[in-house]
Amino acid sequence: MVKKTRGNASVSCTQGFMVLRIVVWGLLATTAYVQAQSYPTRPIRFVVPFPPGGSTDTYARIIGGKLGEALGQPVVFDNRAGAAGSVGAEIAAKAPSDGYTIVLGQDSNLVVGQAVRKQKNFDTLRDFAPIALVVKTPQVIVVNDSSPFRSLKDLVSAAKAKPGTLNYASAGVAGSSHVLGTFFNIAAGIDTVHVPYKGGGPGMLDLRAGRVNYMITSMVSSLNFARDGRARLLAVTGTKRSHLFPDVPTLSEAGFPGFETTIWHGVLAPAKVPRSVVTRVNQEVVKVIAMPDVQKLLQFEGGTPSPSTPEEFQAFLREEVSRWEKMVKQTGITVD
């Protein structure tokens, strides 16, 4: 009788634990659902790791305004420029993982900058929760309207004639435009001086003023100047010509194959943010990108809308990290 009683007690205890686990799982699922439905309950900070006027700021404001409307809370833009976008990225990476800080990251600060730095203040694959890829845009090699260079061939010829005299602007040390500029110098056999800025906007202003000879930058940063004739595009870095400037050749067409690169932008949050938040923000960002007026705005800025799932964005990040690490090794660029 004792053994039978103990056996029944054991079965009863096991069943009790199973019921308890089911109840706990149900409570957790209900809590996650309630959190997903109630989020957000206050304004969201959208960190923009570059100053106003550049591609990152432009895309952030196109997406952020609509995102705030969709989520029912204001999206507050926080421009934190410096170190080719790494300052803003670090701020976002170290923010609380509560869903109230997101960042518009890009290749320059999340991938290229990390590949060149010996000391890293954050790890892209470890410290961020990818939410959604947004847009891809080619880079350009651009001069101002008074430049004597009418083509990339003209620029290369002048650089070879007087090594070390021409200079070029980029959006910052260790950014993709810096690496691409060095890569181009090696391929073309030229020696030009790199002049870094805190973003594409400030660099373009100095290009217009004649303080630098040419610039490697995003399509967005140079777009308004190129449209009204104040700047001249010599080449684009994409796999095909831009729909906005069909007469401008790709770098491959201009005689330098192997330079098919694009600037990309995506929304991320600090690591360990609740999965319900990632899912909710992803759904809304994808809806925003699909809006006809947003599509037109992104395309008007020279970009190709590229929405994704969080998993697709994560896989894309891994591929980009590997690809740019190999490119950086070839250039020898390092930053302490």
**Which class best fits the helix and strand makeup?**
alpha/beta
Give the termini distance in whole angstroms.
76 Å
Largest sheet: 10 strands, mixed
Number of strands: 10
Query: Number of DSSP helices?
Result: 12
* CA-based gyration radius: 24 Å
Order of helices and strands: HEHEHEHHEHEHEHEHEEHHEH
User: Level of helix content?
Assistant: 40-55%
Shape estimate: globular
Strand content: 15-25%
How would you describe what is shown here?
The protein starts with a helix and ends in a 5-residue tail after the last helix. By secondary structure, it is α/β, with parallel strands linked by helices. Strands 1, 2, 3, 4, 5, 6, 7, 8, 9 and 10 form a ten-stranded mixed β-sheet that branches. It is built from twelve helices and ten strands. 49% of the residues lie in helices and 19% in strands.
Quick tags:
single chain, alpha/beta, 10 strands, 19% strand
In short:
With 336 residues, the protein is an alpha/beta fold. Helix content is 49%, strand content 19%.
Summarize the topology.
Elements: H1 2-38, E1 44-48, H2 55-71, E2 75-79, H3 86-93, E3 101-106, H4 107-116, H5 124-127, E4 128-144, H6 152-161, E5 167-170, H7 176-188, E6 193-196, H8 200-208, E7 214-218, H9 219-227, E8 231-236, E9 262-270, H10 275-290, H11 292-300, E10 304-305, H12 310-331
